[in-house]
Amino acid sequence: QQQVKQSPQSLIVQKGGISIINCAYENTAFDYFPWYQQFPGKGPALLIAIRPDVSEKKEGRFTISFNKSAKQFSLHIMDSQPGDSATYFCAASETSGSRLTFGEGTQLTVNP
Amino acid sequence: DTAVSQTPKYLVTQMGNDKSIKCEQNLGHDTMYWYKQDSKKFLKIMFSYNNKELIINETVPNRFSPKSPDKAHLNLHINSLELGDSAVYFCASSQLFRGGGTDTQYFGPGTRLTVL
Description:
The complex is a heterodimer of chains A (about 110) and B (about 120).
Chain A: E1 4-7, E2 10-14, E3 19-25, E4 30-38, E5 45-50, E6 56-59, E7 62-67, E8 72-77, E9 86-94, E10 101-102, E11 106-111
Parallel strand pairs in A: 2-11
Antiparallel strand pairs in A: 1-3, 3-8, 4-5, 4-9, 6-7, 7-8, 9-10, 9-11
Chain B: E1 4-7, E2 10-13, E3 19-25, E4 31-37, E5 43-50, E6 53-57, E7 64-70, E8 73-78, E9 87-94, E10 106-107, E11 111-115
Parallel strand pairs in B: 2-11
Antiparallel strand pairs in B: 1-3, 3-8, 4-5, 4-9, 5-6, 7-8, 9-10, 9-11
C-alpha cells in the first residue's frame, strides 16, 4: 500500500521555468513532510521540510505548499536551473516515529 | 568530513553468497536506518535502530540481518543472495527528539549491490 503518491514521474523544464512536483498522502497522522533531492550516484539529501501548522514554506528558490484538508503538498522550484536536474522525493512521517515513507520520486531535467 | 559513510560502494557477487555492508556515522546521532532503492529508484525503509535497539523491522526476508555494535555503526548482512536483492542500499542516521519525532535523516552515498 503506497501511502505517499508522487507525480509526475518525470518532468522536463526549460531553464528559468517553474518546476512543480505534487504529492498526496493518506495517513492523517503524518505531520512532517520533507523533500529530498538525489543526484546520480549520491544519497538523498534534505532540501526543505514543512509541518502542517503552516501552509507554505520558502527557502530561496524552493517553496513547499501544503494543503492539510486535501492531504496534498507540493514542491515549487522557481527559476529552475540545469544544476537542479536530479530526482526529487517527497516523504512523510508521524511525530511519534522515525519512519519516513517516500513517494515514488520525480526525475527533473532542466534544459539549458 | 564524511557524515555517513558506507563500505563498499560497489559489491558484485554470485547468487547464493553471503555479503555484508558496513555503515558508520560521525554525527553523534542515536538512530540509524537501512533503506533499499530499487531499479525504479523507489526508496523503502528496511530497518531502524535506536541506541543499538531495533525499532523498525519492515517486511524483509530474514536473509537480511542488521547488526549494531554501537550507536555509530549499523551493518547489514545478507545471506544466500538472490537476483532480486540487486539494488542500491542506503544507510541513514538521525537524532530522535525526546518529545517524539525525528530530525533530518542524513543519507550515506549508497552501496550498489549486483547479484549475478
